[in-house]
Design brief:
Residues 66-87 are annotated as: Disordered. This is Gp19/Gp15/Gp42-like protein. It comes from Saccharothrix ecbatanensis. By secondary structure, the chain is mainly alpha-helical. It has one domain. 40% of the residues lie in helices and 7% in strands. The protein has helices spanning 7-12, 20-40, 52-65, 94-98, and strands at residues 73-76, 79-82. It has a two-stranded antiparallel ribbon. A hairpin with a 2-residue loop joins strand 1 (73-76) and strand 2. The longest helix is centred in the first third of the chain and has 21 residues, at 20-40.
């Protein structure tokens, strides 16, 4: 299946120039994130919503920033860093997934309210 974002989408959303190694990893992560989205949002529209590249790029950048060895936290001298997600890695938040879901249909028809 076609990925929902590209490495160029990821690069466009960061000020840091990705190395060739990071670009290769980003390509794999974009594919993985696309698969996660398709599994978690089965009602994904075709074409996907305009929010898809930004949502996936955010998840990929988050994964690229997490410690590569999967540590939740690390300390070097007086500096400490903690991953925002248990185990770090690639994940999408519920809010991000909601950005990919179709909007709920507006209620239609008449209704009655019974009082007692």
């Amino acid at each position: 299946m076609t990925p929902l974002a590209t490495v160029a989408d990821v690069q466009a959303r960061t000020e840091v120039q990705l190395t060739a190694e990071q670009q290769a990893r980003a390509a794999v992560l974009v594919g993985d994130a696309s698969a996660i989205v398709r599994a978690r949002v089965p009602e994904l529209s075709d074409p996907p919503p305009a929010t898809a590249p930004g949502v996936l790029a955010t998840a990929v950048l988050r994964a690229l920033a997490s410690p590569p060895d999967g540590n939740k936290s690390e300390t070097v001298g007086g500096h400490s860093r903690t991953a925002a997600h248990e185990g770090g890695g690639l994940y999408l938040t519920d809010d991000e997934l909601d950005l990919l879901r179709p909007p709920a249909p507006a209620p239609r028809g008449a209704f009655s309210i019974w009082t007692v």
